[in-house]
Amino acid sequence: MAKREHQRNLVPVLKKAIKAGDKNFVEARLLQEEDWLPRNAGIYKTVEKILEREEVLLKELKIFLKKYQKPDIDAIAITNGPGLDPCLWVGVNLAKALSYFWDIPIVPVNHIEAHILVNWLLLEKNIKKFPAICLVVSGGHTQLILMEEIGKYKILGETRDDAAGECFDKTAKILGLDYPGGPIISAMAIKSRKEQRKIGIKLPRPMLNQKNYDFSFSGLKTAVLYSFKSTSKSTRTSKKYIIEMCSEIQQAIIDVLVAKTIRASKEYNAKTIILGGGVASNKELRKQLGKAIKQQLPKTNYLKPTIKLCSDNAVMVGVAGYFRFLKGKTKIWKRIEAKPNLRIK
Ligand code: KG4
Ligand code: ZN
User: Fold this and answer.
1) Does 139 lie in the same domain as 66?
2) Do 146 and 219 reside in the same domain of the chain?
3) Can you give the residue range of the structural domain that contains 48?
4) Is residue 316 assigned to a domain?
5) Pocket test residue of 138, 179, 308, 316 for ligand 1, highest count of atoms within 8 A of CB
6) Is the pLDDT of residue 288 over 70?
7) pLDDT of residue 35
8) CA 343, CA 345: separation in Å to the nearest integer?
9) Using one digit for the tens of pLDDT, what is the confidence trace for 50-64?
10) Does 167 share its domain with 217?
11) Taking the model in full, what pTM does it have?
């Protein structure tokens, strides 16, 4: 399903993005069929070959390529991993087709690095306060990363099972809330501060005191399930229970994330702490991490993206691609492939 949606959405989004970025990019002329055949038949054959498994996309792309001339861009940044194999390939194959057709190179981008480097978008000048400790928290990943400079990373720890965002999503589902659960749990938790009487739900803080930088969130999900099942129907469907549970789920996740980030930052003498990923849009996490840094590491810089730039977006891929492009890390289209298990390094 996701692959199909990608195929449908890619060309309209591409068109909109190029139009927004390149003032001279206009609907140039509608080329005639003779312009393409037979002179350009070979070129088309290659585009068709690249997108042979993306029929829907190929159809749309052909119309697009006939209508518009090459925009004023130097390279194409594309996420090649980590992620879901079929979704990654749709993007990668589109990038390959465009790269070949427009004769510009591709810059492969690591999704996790993009979540980190999007923080540079709003900086007034390039910061050089390294090392940095990055906490990347999304629906698929929870990683603590040591960053020595742009482009040089070491994973210190990561989740052994569910990601933090996944935990928000799965526990929300147990409670009968919609997807994605993160924003809903966060909104419910805000209400809990106004509530007076408490039911007294207490959830575990998995691996909080372990002297490593790994995480585990599946036990938290199980604890929510047990609590839910062992609570009477009238209580567990009450607004009070849901609100209090949401607040406790959020706090359990935040406690572990903040404690481990601060400990890693102390151990590695971090000059900067960087937050990123969809879960970074959680207001309490942003606030509580900020407070802990202020109290325990007052000289440390704290970078977090604007809420809009936390969740997956193309801008972050552009920013990461830009830095890689400057370092000459481009590739020709033939040498790009999707890597579902790509690791930052
Ligand atoms: O980075 P992202 O957009 O996609 C992945 O790369 O996975 O992250 C999506 C995740 C989802 O699990 C979603 O529930 C979570 O980010 N999320 C939040 C909030 N907004 C989105 N989690 C907690 N609080 C939020 N406000
Ligand atoms: Zn993401």
Assistant:
1) no
2) yes
3) 2-105+330-335
4) no
5) 138
6) yes
7) 54
8) 6
9) 999 999 999 999 989
10) yes
11) 0.94
